[in-house]
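Query structure, 413 tokens:
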């Protein structure tokens, strides 16, 4: 199921992700910055080397006064000795000069203070530079639109409705445009957003036919759709499902327009062992439905299944006939049966039937041979009606309850 779509979608999605990655510069996380700091970058090493040199100077400065003190002491003694011998003005000046030199040693404390002030300043500058290295380049709306184009084409090729494509585009845009994002997180973000977006396509109230059928007797279900959509076979499948749940059914052959439609439905009724109410070809289809309901009431049947003539949604006269049948039969459920493989046509048909007749739910026939999947993805979102079942073969048990997860995994997400 959906193999063609899956293959093309996978390729274009990978390409789309890579292109966005190329447009976005990586923004390191705080943890990554910490790791970089731990690795002792070149700048930090240079600072530490400079600090070591300054400390050496301090040590040397500390040693100098000691040597000078020794020299001064020796000079003092010599001068004292000379002064005793000859206390002249010249001798006094020499003494003052020596003592002045002793009182002005190199400013060791000042050097220390300077280093203490310099060290935190240099460290602060280093961290500031690391922060500046963290570059943030956001994806613009124009860049996104250009990159999305190929993905848009693949969605259209696979019969995804324009309304759905626009929704997916806006959802992705919201997550990717003008937002800082790590390059390595781009693909994960795209897949996560796509899954969320697709799941939202199916947020409509579900209908459990079996539960509903147990709430009212007789429960009336009317099936509508165009010719060749698999409507007759689907009626037989639903009948089988209800029988499995101990519900008695009667079938109304209200398709009095198509040749051999009554005989075809009769074969299914005989196989299933249920009563079928029929009139002649060309008779009023609403009258057939009415008679079937009366029979069900008299014979205490649980469910009435009404077949209708397949017609194009564009044929106004035939659509009016369906409206008349629905008005008289007052079905509890009106189900649209569409051919999954017809893609956008199926979506358009469901939309028109919903506008003209009013539908409650959708059954997609021939889903097992649908390579594209556009109808399954789009029809519920466009009509705001739930998909109840997928037809997956010709046997009566080939009816699968609809699960959005099947669709999402079917296209490779």
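Result returned for the query:
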């Amino acid at each position: 199921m959906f193999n063609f779509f899956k293959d093309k979608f996978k390729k274009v999605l990978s390409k789309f992700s890579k292109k966005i990655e190329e447009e976005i510069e990586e923004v390191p996380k705080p943890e990554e910055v910490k790791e970089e700091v731990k690795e002792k970058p070149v700048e930090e090493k240079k600072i530490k080397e400079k600090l070591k040199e300054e400390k050496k100077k301090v040590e040397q400065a500390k040693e100098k006064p000691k040597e000078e003190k020794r020299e001064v002491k020796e000079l003092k003694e010599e001068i004292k000795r000379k002064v005793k011998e000859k206390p002249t003005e010249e001798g006094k000046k020499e003494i003052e000069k020596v003592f002045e030199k002793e009182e002005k040693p190199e400013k060791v404390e000042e050097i220390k203070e300077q280093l203490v002030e310099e060290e935190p300043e240099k460290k602060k500058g280093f961290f500031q530079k690391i922060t500046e290295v963290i570059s943030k380049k956001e994806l613009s709306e124009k860049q996104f639109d250009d990159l999305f184009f190929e993905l848009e084409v693949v969605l259209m090729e696979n019969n995804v409705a324009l309304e759905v494509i626009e929704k997916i585009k806006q959802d992705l845009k919201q997550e990717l445009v003008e937002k800082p994002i790590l390059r390595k997180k781009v693909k994960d973000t795209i897949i996560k957003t796509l899954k969320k977006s697709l799941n939202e396509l199916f947020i409509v109230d579900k209908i459990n036919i079996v539960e509903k059928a147990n709430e009212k007797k007789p429960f009336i279900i009317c099936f509508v759709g165009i010719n060749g959509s698999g409507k007759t076979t689907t009626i037989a499948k639903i009948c089988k499902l209800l029988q499995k749940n101990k519900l008695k059914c009667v079938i109304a052959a209200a398709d009095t327009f198509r040749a051999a439609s009554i005989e075809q439905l009769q074969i299914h009724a005989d196989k299933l062992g249920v009563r079928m109410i029929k009139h002649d070809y060309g008779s009023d289809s609403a009258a057939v439905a009415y008679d079937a309901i009366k029979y069900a009431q008299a014979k205490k049947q649980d469910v009435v299944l009404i077949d209708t003539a397949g017609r194009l949604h564009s044929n106004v006269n035939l659509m009016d006939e369906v409206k008349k049948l629905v008005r008289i039969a007052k079905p509890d459920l009106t189900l649209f049966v569409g051919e999954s493989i017809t893609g956008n046509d199926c979506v358009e048909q469901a939309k028109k039937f919903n506008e003209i007749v009013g539908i409650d739910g959708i059954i997609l026939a021939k889903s097992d041979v649908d390579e594209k999947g556009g109808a399954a993805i789009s029809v519920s979102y466009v009509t705001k009606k739930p998909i109840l079942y997928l037809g997956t073969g010709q046997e009566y048990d080939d009816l699968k309850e609809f699960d959005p997860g099947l669709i999402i995994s079917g296209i490779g997400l």
